[in-house]
Design goal:
By secondary structure, this protein is of the alpha/beta class. 44% of the residues lie in helices and 21% in strands. α4 crosses α6. One of its GO terms (biological process) is DNA repair.
Length: 778
């Protein structure tokens, strides 16, 4: 049975006829909503015999596959032996000038519809009509032509010929890919403990079209074990694409490494790593248009040639995309989005699937659900999702723009003044002084003024006039639109937070529970596999991640010998905020005692920078000779890499790194062998008390009675476990984890600690010394 390849008329023309510059700075004159309303207005005015939104399809059978071309005609009128195909276009252009500056894509679309209809009904000729509607003036101009079937065929067939050549290449590639997958064996002689179990469960989950949570510590090889069954399903044409979603560069690197291992064993797969625009753009200081950037100028003239050349490669990594972009002078970010349409395995950040502002509409605006989501470090998705579905604006943003617009755009200047007045009224309502408050209602008064600002901004931006303030206005416009879109979603899962100080007021629409939004996006996947080293308690993650009732969960122990990891606990040191000044000296002495037993590299994790700093100061007084390195807030990526680089195999002296739990150094870093000897974890990782955390607590208290656990305890212990997981990264590693807190061995924390941990407690320093001597064999 031949496979069917579907393509819309619009996508067909975009591929075959695209020309000109890439321009991400020109503002569209008409919104989608306005366009839809205008279409409906015209359609409702047509005669009774006029049919609206008529589906049309046309099939072309080749030796290998069937190409099915589909479209939806705006209108079809059959009357008095005349058939007219109508295509409606909204515009703000002067209608008297329309015929002087005809848009070839408009005619291309209606001519394709006409050919498909005429071919279906054996017509010798047919009329086509472009109906232009000036949305400002409410005027209509109709341009009509009659075409014979031969004229339409002469136009249509070269387009199809161009596209079929590309589809032949895609079909040939799919055969090569599937053959390689079907002949692919597990790349190693033996499975690691638990690896075969993961592969089996993932395979069943995808086959059964359900969601699966895989809790597996480092060392099992879960990236490979989860990717391989997904690839095998792809090789049977039961999936369209695989999305490997990860929050960090290290996760992306792990996925790329797993695919490269399989490639060495014969796998052919086209994989793409989507890199954030600000990290891959070669001209970050230039605007994204043909006037300012050579990679945007004539982009669409070169895109297809670049695509044809690129398709000779399989691995579209950051460097590969950059090299292609330079060779063909195309924007690397836009070109990577183009490549995503034709690649099999897409590695990207969570936001390309879940974030309503930047998700890949080319995939997820349709009802297609032949995708598989592989969600790495899934414990991070909950807090990331809260941020994605929240929005915040502050008073200062509007004042700064207002100052730029003074004496330039009076209408917008007045609108910004009204927004500022609204902010001042809200501030006065809640009193003077710094405070953070919350309400269960949306900020309706502000929304009204923001809508007016948005409309005024659209009017000016649509003129596409250069101005020194244009970029600032455009940025704020998009922020406002995002805020208003978030406000439209406001329901019982949301609250409004007001953060007030003497100089400013920020208003945040806060998503307390993002599960509903996650669930709606998960519906685009045939199966979603969540995996992490920490996915307990199961009930918490199933609920918070928006999983459905059929979701399954598996948990596997560490594959490494338990005697290689020493777990020491002292539950006699209080890390409560009120006691930290009293315990900092004890903490410092304990750290000094630990490192004196074994020269090596150590990481000490704290619940806050303040607690870190006060303990660090005490440590340096007690042990001024040991080398130390300290994490600071807002470190750049280069600074983070330099921090990690100091943990070396070759060091002959001890190094102690002071870091914050939940930060860049407490997960997704691999310090194998002697690069890390031990970790000290201070506290149970509770997030600081805040208005937002209290909203989460109150919400889940009302929902299931577990508010404090959902808001504080579970997120906290996950940080502890992630930090502890840095110590043993391979079968040859050996190291110590020292947990310090009075609560760590009490519910619910003790129920979440790994069962294979052989926990040994101590109270006095001499007891710690004995335990360390036993572990290190001194």
């Amino acid at each position: 049975m031949k496979s069917i390849i579907n393509i819309s008329v619009r996508d067909l023309l975009d591929f075959c006829l695209r020309r000109g510059d890439l321009d991400l700075t020109t503002f569209g004159a008409i919104s989608t909503t306005e366009g839809i309303k205008a279409h409906q207005q015209i359609q409702n005015q047509r005669p009774e015999e006029y049919q609206s939104e008529v589906f049309i399809s046309h099939e072309i059978e080749t030796l290998e596959y069937i190409l099915q071309i589909t479209g939806r005609m705006d209108g079809l009128r059959i009357a008095d032996d005349q058939i007219i195909i109508d295509e409606i276009k909204t515009t703000k252009q002067d209608l008297t000038q329309i015929e002087l500056f005809e848009n070839p894509l408009h005619w291309a679309q209606v001519k394709c519809y006409a050919y498909m209809y005429a071919q279906k009904y054996n017509l010798g000729k047919i009329d086509v009509q472009l109906t232009y509607f000036n949305i400002d003036e409410g005027k209509i101009k109709e341009i009509k032509h009659e075409f014979t079937i031969d004229e339409l065929r002469a136009y249509f067939e070269p387009l199809i010929s161009t596209y079929i050549k590309w589809m032949d290449k895609i079909h040939e590639w799919t055969t090569i890919r599937n053959d390689s997958i079907n002949n692919l064996a597990f790349p190693f002689r033996d499975f690691r403990h638990g690896q075969e179990k993961i592969m089996s469960e993932v395979g069943y989950a995808i086959a059964d079209q359900i969601q699966l949570l895989v809790e597996a510590p480092t060392g099992i090889g879960k990236t490979l074990a989860i990717s391989l069954p997904a690839l095998q399903t792809l090789g049977r044409n039961e999936l369209f694409k695989i999305f490997y979603l990860t929050a960090r560069t290290t996760g992306r690197n792990a996925a790329e490494a797993a695919l490269n291992i399989l490639r060495e064993k014969g796998l052919r797969i086209k994989s793409l790593s989507l890199i954030a625009k600000d990290k891959i753009c070669p001209n970050p200081d230039r605007l994204c248009n043909g006037r300012d950037c050579k990679f945007a100028a004539g982009y669409y003239n070169r895109a297809n040639n670049a695509l044809q050349s690129a398709f000779e490669n399989d691995n579209f990594s950051h460097n590969a995309i950059t090299d292609l972009a330079i060779e063909y002078q195309v924007c690397p970010f836009e070109f990577s989005l183009e490549l995503s349409l034709w690649c099999d395995f897409i590695i990207c950040d969570y936001n390309y699937v879940f974030d309503p502002k930047v998700y890949l509409r080319r995939f997820f605006d349709d009802d297609v659900n032949d995708y598989c989501f592989l969600i790495d470090e899934a414990h991070n998705l909950i807090e990331r999702a809260r941020a994605m579905y929240s929005a915040e604006l502050n008073k200062k943003q509007f004042l700064e723009l207002r100052q730029l617009l003074k004496n330039k755009l009076p209408k917008l200047y007045r609108s910004l003044g009204k927004i500022n007045t609204t902010y001042l009224k809200i501030k006065k309502q809640y009193g003077s002084g710094a405070a953070t408050l919350a309400e269960n209602d949306p900020p309706s008064a502000l929304q009204s003024e923001l809508e007016k600002f948005s409309n005024h901004a659209e009017e000016w931006l649509a003129l596409n006039q250069p101005a020194d303030f244009r970029e600032v206005l455009l940025d704020l416009y998009f922020d406002v639109r995002g805020f208003l879109k978030t406000a439209e979603r406001f329901d019982s899962n949301y609250a409004t937070c007001y953060n007030i100080n003497d100089q400013n007021l920020s208003i945040k629409i806060f998503c307390v529970n993002p599960a509903y939004h996650l669930r709606s996006m998960l519906e685009h996947a045939r199966s979603s596999i969540f995996f992490s080293g920490t996915l307990k308690p199961t009930e918490y993650f199933l609920e918070a991640l928006g999983c459905d009732g059929s979701a399954r969960h598996i948990s596997l122990p560490s594959p490494f010998a338990s005697e290689n990891l020493g777990i020491l606990v002292t539950n006699r040191v209080s890390t409560f905020f009120r006691n930290r000044h009293h315990t900092k000296e004890i903490l410092a002495r304990t750290i000094v005692n630990l490192i004196k037993h074994r020269t090596g590299n150590y990481l000490v994790y704290f619940p806050s920078y303040e607690y870190l700093q006060m303990t660090f100061d005490c440590f340096k007084k007690q042990d001024p000779n040991t080398s130390t390195i300290i994490q600071t807030s807002n470190m750049t990526e280069q600074e983070r890499l330099q921090f990690i680089a100091q943990f070396s195999h070759e060091s002959k002296n001890s190094l102690v790194g002071f870091a914050v739990m939940g930060g860049a150094f407490s997960e997704s870093i691999d310090l194998i062998g002697d690069r890390l000897t031990g970790a000290v974890i201070v506290g149970v990782g509770l997030p600081p008390v805040s208005t937002e955390r209290e909203l989460i607590r109150e919400y889940f208290d009302s929902l299931n009675g577990n508010g404090y656990a959902y808001a504080y305890q579970y997120p906290g212990i996950i940080k502890v476990l992630q930090a502890a997981g840095r110590v043993i990264r391979s079968e040859n590693d050996r190291g110590i984890v020292l947990l310090i807190d009075t609560r760590i061995l009490t519910p619910p924390y003790d129920d979440i600690l790994p069962r294979e941990w052989d926990i040994k407690q101590f109270i006095r320093p001499d007891e710690l010394n004995v335990l360390l001597d036993e572990f290190w064999g001194i």
